[in-house]
Design a protein that fits this description.
Number of helices: 4
Shape: globular
Length: about 230
Amino acid sequence: KFKTKLQMDYFFEEKQELKFTIYDIDTKNLTKLSDQDFLGSCETTLGTIVGSRGCYTALLQGTAGHKYGSIRILAEEIKSGKDDTVFLTVEGRNMTTKDWMGKGDHYLSFLRQRGDGAFDEVMKTEVKKGTKDANWGQLKFNMLRLCLGNMNAPIKIQLWDWNSVSDPTFLGEVATTLAEMQSTPKTLMTKNPQGKDKEKNRGDIIITDCKIHREATFLQYIQSGLNMEVVV
């Protein structure tokens, strides 16, 4: 399984034909597809994908008699602010740990909700070792990646305990939105929905500052009194 993201313009009045072809890469020369293993293809239109409820799913086609698996395509609308940047200043307080000794090595994972309800990871912070109270400083997000420009889109912040000899340990999570995080300082309590005590506080995530840097459009420059000099 793998996934990738493409950004396209959708025109309702046009038939936008698409073809997805899957290859198993065997050489470094990606432009020479004849050297790669063909794993199937799918032909459809952008309108068909956009009009599907949830994910568009289709069987991959190829040589008769062979099974190539399937492809799932999810279309999501990008709201305004695709070029904007979000700056979050984040701290952690009283974070738990599953380590027998020590205070834990904590990091955060930020996830956004897709149109089909699943969550995609947007960013992981650095690991803060040996402390129950951490300061991750200012984190920078592209607003498109964080919430598709939708201030009220669900965002999860997960708290993890890093381990040097095993997989990281999930400690807890909290659901929020970019609109909610703008009311700083904002304290978010993480809980473990799979734990024995689901309401126990696993650690506080504190948003001490939230800033959005908006890229002005050309029209906004004009409306604000942009002075242009033209030399012919």
